[in-house]
Amino acid sequence: MTRLVLVRREQVLKGGQPLAFLIGLVFAMLIGVVLLLISGHDPLAIYGRMVEASLGSPRAWSITLNRAVPLGLAGLAVAVAGSMGLWNIGAEGQILAGAMMAAWVARLGEGWASPLLITAMLVAAVVGGALLASGPAVARAQIGVNEIITTLMLNEVALRLLQWLIHGSWKDPESRGFPLAPMLPDEARLPGLFERAHWGAVIALGVIALFGLVASRTAWGYELRVAGSSGATARYAGISLKRKITTVLILSGGIAGLAGGIELSGNADRITEGISAGYGFAGIIVAALALLRPSGVAAVALLFGAVQVGGLSIQTMGVSSSVSTILQAFILFGAIGAGVFSRYAVRRVNNDKTSSES
Amino acid sequence: MTPASTAAVDLVNIWKRFPGVIANAGASLQIKTGSIHAVLGENGAGKSTLMNVLSGVYRPDEGQVLIDGEAHQFRSPSDALNAGIGMVHQEFRLVPSFTVAENVVLGASDRLVRRTAVEKEVGELAERFGLATDPSRPIWQLSMGERQRVEILKALWRNARILILDEPTAVLTPSEADELGRVLRTMADDGRSIIFISHKLHEVTGFCDEATVLRGGKTVAASLQVADTNAHELAGLMVGSSPIISERPPARQAGEILLEIKNLEAQSDRSLPVLHGLSLQVRSGEIVGIAGVSGNGQREMAQVVAGLRPATAGSVSIAGQEVTATPPAARFKAGLGYVPEDRLGVGLAPRLTVTENAILRNYRSLRKGPFLDSDQADEHCQDLVERFGVKTGPMHEPIAGLSGGNLQRLLVGRELSGGPKVLVAAQPTRGLDVKGVKAIQDLLIAERDAGVAVLLVSEDLDELFTLSDRLLVIHDGQIVGEFNPETAQRHQVGAAMAGEVVTQ
Question: Which residues of B touch A226 (CB under 8 A)?
Fold first, then answer.
């Protein structure tokens, strides 16, 4: 009798992660075929439509790109914290906080010139996300409160605050009693790039590249990587862990807040409870699949954007948009599963009696 | 020559290759049933790999593993255990909050166990082999020597007929080590075979029947009768040429006090007092050695001096400047160089590259605006690598791939490149090969001669005798004795280490 066993590789397979990702994608699509067949659809037609809608034309690309922007920034936010071994599970709330601050500035800055207003909104968005993250940051750095729990709980706080504003002082008098904030003025809208894509893609890519550069080339980034590799070594080298933890978590919140500001200014007519379509949580998956690397974050975000846009597009064919959620989940599942094989090799073993007791 | 059928263990022509390294190049080992067999070799000689092959952790690329004359292919340590091979690791694998008995049976029983019955059985087993322990006491209350007895009991409980002990005396006082020797003899007389890995030659000649010496992954001397050999011959076989007998460097006039520790108190990781009013001084141009059985506060003392552990009372001054409450970076500025005991955990960042680790102490001076000057960083790293003979792969690869000796050279080199006034070196030569040890020792002497005050914490008494100008003994968080290494006797120092009051 033979059996298969996993044996740890002596060296991690090079290029294993992109390969694992690809395997995850294929695995997810195969599961999707089964699901679609069960529900009585033609998988080829559905997949064709998804690809067409997300990548088939410049217009499709523009929609995918817009979707990838908040995913990429949220993914970066999680990755930034992750580089220090911290988990920011509060990107969702920080996105809302960023959007709220941007909406507030848009209200204050009525009549300002568009570039000034947009800049002020985005800066405010960063501040909003950073503010929401600052509590968990300080609590973690000073007295060691687990940031996973605090950031997670603040998601709910941010959502309630937004609801309170929309139902209260921000309610549009012209909405005839509906809890809706007023429409944003045109000056508050991010200018377009091509088709439906807006400048958010450029900003997001710039921020991701900037962080990549800061992390790999600057003294600050070096300290960050030392601290992420070994906290004791960082202390030994005179790097203040408290300060690093605080800055990194606040920075992470600020990046997520920026995603909220861009989403409001680029994609939305007005601020709503649903301004973030779960981007903060999807960002955790994006960061994990990118192994917390900025370059990986951009690529994974684009792919997730395409999957989400494709998933939305097939609703017109009578397929639930949950299909895309399921696909995303199985991509993660498959990629993490396949990732195991970059660290372990499969060997076939003869299960004879040589090793049992003599 | 013993016929193969009576050998408890017969490892034949074992090859094991790792990327870039051949750990075992045709090593052989034959152990007679009922004997205590020493396996000797320097770090990197292939002992650990060979023992990992025998205990099922690694599979050999080539070669045969025969247990009682029968060929085995172990897939896992549990396969090896089933064949009767038990390993007593250097780092104990015990659950601190469990009792002795619970630790002994943990994982070895798939049914629910009754505490009293198990405690009785474990107690009987312990008594049979002279392993005095109370089965109902929790591990955290036990001394290192007692914990080691629990590890041995675990192997015996699992019916190990072949026991591998990896540097078992490293954590023991001399009298505890003698006690262990008696226990091992009892087990051997019971028909069990013991493999004893050690660097301490007097223990090998003291307790063992036979010795096998490895060098460069090969067996250079198989099953020598210990009665027919001596420590000098064994040392010669280990290093391949005549052993390096370090000469005591000429004494030098000590200068002003550069490191002063006064009435220092501090707590251990478990928040128990571990330093009890420790005081010492180190002057410019002298090496002060700290001898002590591990766990007596030397680790914590070095950490307090480096600023990595708070002092609860007392003071530390570096070059006349009080630094007791300052962070590590301020002490570095005041002129402290520190070689930590835990290299990978405290001194180095394992995920970072060789260059990135090389600049840990001076990266602040390599700034160009917000950026790090990567050319200068590479240059600094290249310089360190050459001056201190670090063998590295590409400098932009993570250091995780370097050997222990090369990691230490990189670390010590980095600390010395800053031009310190005071150097605290904790176990600086542990785990290095002879060349590495000599290189590090020479560096310490050169630093001393340049006027640096060196505080050397070491477990290696020979090293302390060779290098120290003054030898202090730490016991239970206090300095309990001071010796002149030129005139002191080893047994006097040993007695002080064990906490006995000694007058020189």
Answer: 349, 352, 356, 360
Average pLDDT along chain B: 84
pLDDT score for A352: 43
DSSP-assigned letter for residue B16: E
Sorted by sequence, the CB contacts under 8 Å of residue B480 that are 6+ apart come out as B473, B474, B496, B499, B501, B502
Which residues of chain B make contact with A222, given a CB cutoff of 8 A? 356, 363, 372
- What are A101-158's pLDDT values in tens digits? 999 999 998 889 999 999 999 999 999 999 999 999 999 999 999 999 999 999 999 9
User: Which of B72, B338, B367 comes nearest A354 by C-beta?
Assistant: B72
In sequence order, what E strands does B292-355 have?
311-318, 321-322, 336-339
B438-471 pLDDT tens trace: 878 888 898 898 899 999 998 777 788 888 999 9
Supply the pLDDT for residue B250.
67
Tell me if B318 sits within 8 A of B334, measured CB to CB.
yes
B18 touches chain A (CB under 8 A): yes
- Tell me which chain A residue has its CA closest to the CA of residue B343: A233
Helix (H, G, I), strand (E, B) or coil at B408: helix
Distance between CA atoms of A325 and A277, rounded to whole angstroms? Answer: 12
**Confidence band for B43, pLDDT divided at 50, 70 and 90:** low
pLDDT of residue A355: 38
Mutation choice for B interface testing from A9, A213, A230 by most B CBs within 10 A:
A230
The alpha-helical segments, DSSP class H, found in chain A are 16-38, 43-55, 58-82, 91-108, 114-143, 147-167, 200-217, 219-229, 231-236, 241-262, 279-289, 294-313, 322-343
Which residues 217-276 in chain A show a CB within 8 A of chain B? 217-220, 222, 225-226, 228-230, 232-240
Compute φ and ψ for B64, nearest 5 degrees. Answer: -120, 145
Token pair for residue A293?
A: 């690397």
Read off the pLDDT of residues B395-428 as tens digits, 9 standing for 90 and up: 888 887 777 778 888 898 898 888 899 999 998 8
Q: Strand runs (DSSP E) across B209-340, as ranges?
A: 210-215, 218-225, 257-267, 273-283, 287-291, 311-318, 321-322, 336-339
- Tell me the domains of chain B and their CATH numbers: 4-239 (3.40.50.300), 257-497 (3.40.50.300)
**Those residues with Cβ within 8 angstroms of residue A16's Cβ, 6 or more apart along the chain or in another chain:** A339, A341, A342, A343
* Alpha helices (H) in B324-460, listed in sequence order: 328-334, 354-358, 374-387, 404-417, 434-449
State the helix-helix crossing angle for A279-289 and A58-82, rounded to 10 degrees.
80
CB B207 within 8 A of CB B200: no
Q: Rounded to two decimals, what is the model's pTM?
A: 0.71
Q: Do B348 and A230 touch (CB under 8 A)?
A: yes
Query: CB–CB of B352 and A232 under 8 A?
Result: no
| pLDDT at residue B243 in the model | 37
Q: What is the pairing mode between strands A344-350 and A2-8?
A: antiparallel
Asked whether the beta carbons of A99 and A264 are under 8 A apart, the reply is yes
Per DSSP, B226 falls in state G
